[in-house]
Amino acid sequence: MALPLRYNIRNVLVRWRSTITTILGIALVVSVYVLMQAMAAGIEKSSANTGSPDNLLIIRRGSTAESSSIVSREQLRTLLYSPEIARTAADEPLVSADVLVLLNLPRRDGGGEANVLLRGVSPRGRDLRAQVVLVEGRWFDRGKREVVVSQRLAARFAGFGLNEEFRSGPATYRVVGHTDAGKSAFDSEVWMDADEARALFDREQYSSLLVRPKDAEAATNLIARLEKDKRLQLVAHVESAYYAKQTGTATPIKWLGNFLAIAMSVGAVFAAMNTMYAAVGARTREIGTLRVLGFRRRTVVLSFLLEGALLAGLGGALGCALSLFMNGYAVGTLNFATFSETVFEFRITPALMLQGLLFSIVVGILGTLLPALRASRLPVIAALKSL
Q: Most buried among 97, 326, 364, 371, using CB within 10 Å?
């Protein structure tokens, strides 16, 4: 014979002080867990949303990222007129030789400095990255130390406003335009002319090449040719696939989120155990009465577990609801691949909320298990004689 559900609900309502304490404690744990996982999901989404499957990104063999790659001008000239590469109407190859440089710049709110990724792009670079759209001002002119920055970076760093100037090293740069890259990794970059960037930062080589093959077959042939050519020491990746793999920044955040969740859940489990032990102590005669009425030990255990799961579920739902206020909020963090600031949004998905809710229920059941077993093992006579 099972105990009716309203028995557990009435117990929760009668002991409202301990109920509120348990719910709030679990809600805090779940909220932190969901937000940390939402940060990692936002970074992964930013990387997965970057690049085009029609482009190939070419970097030095053995490099894990563009920032650690070197492509010489001789290698560029060798590849520039490859038969696999598409051409414009003016018979110019669709190739952009890029240079990546880290700038250390002050934040707009005065909260210290951070690294920003400056990308020097060739004239064809804008054509190959159609997702980067100019939304204010104009594109930079070559040879004038002009840059365009994303709107998101402009809100975070000093000197990034339209027609404002900032200084890095021996040069002063003027912001002539703001861009929107559709919440991709390009929203974390400053752009200027590639050859001008090489001259200003004393770079003889390029960092990477972005090329547009004629078709899928040409892309496959170019990838295979670079793989076999030991002289060039280059490797080609589909651009969108390359950025989708650049999610190393999300991994430490996931680890931190899991660590915090485990540490806080241990505290939540003990809090739940303390609450349920107190409930057992206050309901000793009640438990004895239930046993006399014919309810078995496993029924009492299941009843207490159900009560713990109910409290934890309410706490988990509250924690998920609290975390929703951060959904879509844009922040920045360190990109461990480029060591520059990456701008991303918290992404709280239904699957992530369900994960947080299930996590809370598990915490509630674990915290209730030992008190429930103790309640079931109370001798009937002793329980009825207790005060």
A: 364
Structure tokens at 256: 């931190």
Give residue 131's identity as a one-letter amino acid code: Q
Lowest-pLDDT range, 28-32, 109-113, 237-241, 252-256?
A: 252-256
| Mean pLDDT over each residue of the chain, to the nearest integer | 81
Q: Is residue 240 part of a domain?
A: no
DSSP-assigned states of every residue in 291-326: HHTT--HHHHHHHHHHHHHHHHHHHHHHHHHHHGGG
Roughly what angle, to the nearest 10 degrees, separates helices 5-14 and 16-48? 100
At 311-351, the pLDDT tens digits run 888 888 998 998 888 887 666 565 555 555 666 677 888 88
Q: What is the DSSP letter of 161?
A: S
Q: Indicate the number of domains in the chain.
A: 2
CA atoms lying within 13 Å on the CB side of residue 254: 11
What is the number of residues in the chain?
A: 387
Residues near 241 by beta carbon (within 8 Å), at least 6 away in sequence? 51, 53
Q: Which of 75, 214, 206 is nearest to 222 (CA)?
A: 214
Same structural domain, 95 and 34: no
Question: Looking at residue 37, what is its pLDDT?
Answer: 80
* Two structure tokens written together for 36: 């940390």
The predicted-structure confidence for 288-305, as pLDDT tens digits, reads as follows 777 777 777 777 778 778
The dihedrals phi and psi of 197, each to the nearest 5 degrees, come to -65, -40
| Whole-angstrom distance, CA of residue 142 vs CA of residue 285 | 86
Choose among 174, 176, 178, 198: nearest CA to 187.
178
Q: Which residues pair with 156 in a beta bridge?
A: none
Domain-located, residue 295: yes
**Domain range for 331:** 5-48+248-385
- Residue 40: name the closest of 188, 358, 257, 334 by CA: 257
Residues 264 and 131 in one domain: no
**199 and 259 share one domain:** no
